């Protein structure tokens, strides 16, 4: 039997701290995730892009602090951003309103993560993306 020790980190990022602070904080914690070097090299960009998109959207639409939580459960790094805005984001089709310069964040996150989920939490919402090891089974037994 393998014992898995889950680890996690959490921090709030007010609008004044910005997205850059969230990316830097995340990059520091990524070093302790036990990925092989190939996975680390490929996943780091995707995780940091996800943090940028989710924290930006939280600041833009909720107008307050973005609560960023990173959790490693032994098979997946969960990146979750919560805020107090109860409106659920909608994924727009890639070809909708081609001139738009915004509104594609959830689509980007869904494209780079192994899985992505949006759910209501404490009067607001959270968006959680999961990143599993490269070449391994899908997160939590799902197919990749």
UniProtKB/TrEMBL annotation:
Q: Where is the Histidine kinase/HSP90-like ATPase domain?
A: 19-130
Which InterPro entries does its entry note? Anti-sigma-factor_SerPK, HATPase_C_sf, HATPase_dom
Pfam hit, one: HATPase_c_2
| This protein's UniProt keywords | ATP-binding, Kinase, Nucleotide-binding, Serine/threonine-protein kinase, Transferase
Q: Which GO terms describe its molecular function?
A: ATP binding; protein serine/threonine kinase activity
Fetch the CDD domains from UniProt: HATPase_RsbW-like
Q: What name does the UniProt record give this protein?
A: ATP-binding protein
What species does this protein belong to? Answer: Streptomyces globosus
């Amino acid at each position: 039997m393998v014992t898995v020790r889950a680890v996690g980190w959490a921090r709030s990022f007010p609008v004044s701290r910005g997205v850059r602070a969230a990316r830097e904080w995340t990059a520091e914690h990524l070093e302790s995730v036990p990925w092989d070097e190939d996975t680390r090299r490929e996943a780091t960009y995707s995780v940091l892009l996800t943090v940028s998109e989710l924290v930006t959207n939280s600041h833009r639409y909720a107008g307050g602090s973005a609560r960023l939580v990173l959790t490693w459960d032994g098979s997946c790094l969960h990146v979750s951003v919560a805020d107090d805005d109860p409106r659920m984001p909608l994924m727009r089709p890639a070809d909708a309103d081609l001139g738009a310069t915004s509104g594609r964040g959830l689509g980007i996150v869904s494209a780079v993560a192994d899985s992505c989920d949006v759910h209501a939490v404490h009067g607001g919402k959270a968006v959680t993306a999961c990143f599993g090891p490269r070449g391994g089974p899908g997160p939590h037994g799902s197919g990749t």
